[in-house]
Amino acid sequence: MNRHIEYSPVPDAPAHIIGLLNMRGQIVTLVDLAGLMGYERKNGRDRPTCVILKNKPHNPDYIGFIIDRPGSVIDADEVVSEPPPANMSGMENKFVSEVVKLADKLLMIINHEALTKE
User: Fold this and answer.
1) What are the residue ranges of CATH 2.40.50 in the chain?
2) 24's torsion region: left (phi>0), alpha (psi -120 to 50) or beta?
3) Bridge partners, residue 50, by sequence
4) Domain 17-67 -> CATH class
């Protein structure tokens, strides 16, 4: 995760592509995760957080996602997940692979492979 990001906008890119950034010599495509999933981006943050993922183990490409706020780290072995509800529609259904019930909220598990295909 990186809270201080400097990026270069990409002219004529799709609305969810924010730009490109240089991470230790690697070019990273920066994506607005909320926009990609059909949500409105919250602009109230002075310093958005960027989560950077390596696309695939054998592929040197990286992708960065702007998120509203990072959450807690959860031990995947200690949670029970369910498939997303059948009535989940649109982009959410395309990108959400599982739902986890936490004590005070629901946590949507993102299918990162589906995100990187967009």
Assistant:
1) 17-67
2) left
3) 2, 66
4) mainly beta
